[in-house]
Amino acid sequence: MKITFLGTGSGTEPQPGYHHSSFVIEKDGAVYWFDAGETCSYTAHLLGVDILATRAIFISHTHMDHIGGLPNLLWTCRKLNLFVAPRLSGQRIDVYLPDLAVWAGIMQMMRGTQGGFELDFEFAPHLVADGLVYEQDGLRVVAQHNEHMGVPAPGEAWRSFSYRVEGDGRSLVHSGDVRHISELAGLVGDGCDLLLMETGHHDVAEVCTFVRESGWAYGRLLFIHHGLAVLADREGERQKAKAILGDKVELAYDGLVVAL
Predict the structure, then answer these.
(1) Shortest CA distance to 204 belongs to which of 174, 240, 243?
(2) 3-class secondary structure, 137
């Protein structure tokens, strides 16, 4: 599996070199998206990601810095299929998100753009819930709710999720946005090869200390979704992390490619 980070910034004011959260996993010629922040499809296309190979899109939660680029991603799929290479005809792209009312709003907007957003392929929305959400073509995705958007009232659904992804005998855990890193314990389980943790709401040194003391089995910790502390002093925060976890930790950046 190959991971390309399209945006590693959080929802701050625009920062040079840091777009909002998004990365793609490429496996056996298929592309899977995790979050869809601003310019994600633009960046992916320029980096050589085959957008027409998209099979599924997974949204952690519907805050703008995680979903603001989704309408453009959908539009780009349609445009490339129409004018570059008509390869999606008759196919289905699954879209997983925690709020289908948001999807309905996106579709209303898309129908107001060129061609009424008519398609000869399908975007199929699915409501994310705890447990196995996707298992196709050797890729397995498990979702677990977190408290980033609070605890829902009785009878209401959770609105923020983290994901565990498994394929080719390898695994990663994607935090999305979380209240505390301890919420990822169930997804880390007996271990993961790559742990992706956000810094937008957390102190890098505190996270590293928790991971060191938790006893979690992990191959590498990669910080993403960077908050103001990292944006103000990236190298200083990087050195704090390495003083605690050494070579097992690094800070991601837009355009980073990781083989897993």
Answers:
(1) 240
(2) coil
Q: What one-letter code names the amino acid at 25?
A: I
**92 φ, ψ to 5°?**
-125, 135
d(CA 23, CA 36) in angstroms, rounded, equals 8
Place of tokens 């080719």: 168
CA–CA distance, 160 with 130 (Å, rounded to integer): 10
Residue 234 sits in a domain whose CATH number is: 3.60.15.10
Domain that holds residue 111: 2-259
pLDDT in tens, 163-196: 999 999 999 999 999 999 999 999 999 999 999 9
d(CA 4, CA 61): 20
* Cβ-Cβ contacts under 8 Å for 179 (sequence gap 6 or more): 146, 147, 148
Overall domain count for the chain:
1
Distance in angstroms (rounded) separating the CA atoms of residues 16 and 5: 16
State residue 137's pLDDT score: 96
- Give CA–CA dist 87/95, Å, rounded: 18
249-251: strand order across its sheet: 131-136, 139-145, 161-167, 170-174, 192-198, 218-224, 249-251
Count the neighbouring beta carbons within 10 Å of the beta carbon of residue 149: 18
